[in-house]
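Sequence in, structure out. First:
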Amino acid sequence: MPVRSYGVLKGQPVTGELRSSGQNKPHYHIKLGVSGKTFDIAVNVQSTDGSKVLYHVEHDFHPPDPDSLIKLPDGFKLLTRRGEAHPDPLAVDFIREGLVHEGQMHLLEIGIRASQNDLENEVDDLTNRIRSNPDAKLYAFGSQFPSGIHDIHMNQGDPRGSFGDDNGIYQDGALFVNLPAQNRWLAVFIAFQTQSWHTDDRGNPISGLSDGDGRDNREVTHAPRKRPRHGHPTRHGQPRH
């Protein structure tokens, strides 16, 4: 079953900070205020269960349909994934749209200190850039939950017994940033090392194909990971998103 309530949240950040709760690993939380309502964008900047984080920040990004993004009103817009009835052309797919390639991704090791977390620093820098420019906008693609949006990462290629039930195409999460004064777009792409970059038309790994690191997908094994279907998701009891 693909991720639920897939869409895009657009707005001007109010605050951005690294937070953790109890034993939870830190997530970078971006607060957006839209029409008197506050939204929380929860960006995974660490992993806790052995599936290492991969990320790429594109400083010269060219979105497939920038005009449609600019015309979107602030707030959350539900996007119908391509392949379904009445597909939305704004739905994101890393692989099929060629937005980012596995070879561009940087590995963020588990347990790295927050002060050395380049992904956190990049997201913090982008947030501050938008806040200092009243014309700039942030676009967060992912899965809506009651108070905001999460799943801000690739949502396909997970192996069975993992988050495989959430696999799908044209439902990847990402952050896009528009800086009109500079006529510039930037983007943040996040994935997990356990995910395959060779997927079928349902977003499932294609058996027998090797990923960029040379591993065969059939050889990748991990302890089962579960997440609830309501509220904030977890990864081994810790937020993945």
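Second:
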Amino acid sequence: MSQLTTAPETSELARLNKLSVSIRGKLQFMDYLVRAAVADVDRYHEEPDAGTRIFIRQLIEMHASNLSMEGENMRLIGELCTTLEEVLNEDVPHPLRNGDSE
């Protein structure tokens, strides 16, 4: 079935599925970054070698930078919420859709 002949509901469900997969992937990546940063902070405090501490500090800064960037890119959650509202509004009869006028 081509995209032009796909029912709007199917198209919206496909969009929802794509958004949810993308969001789950981003959240998993952010979870990894948080866990890595916390573990590296523990390592940083326990490390006696100054050179290794510098390296670990750079890792922590990298994790923090990536987390910050991922946080800014979470517009996908807004898109998901908008799509969910659109899907729900399609199923709810609008007061003016039954032929009544204002």
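Remark: The chain has one domain: 11-86.
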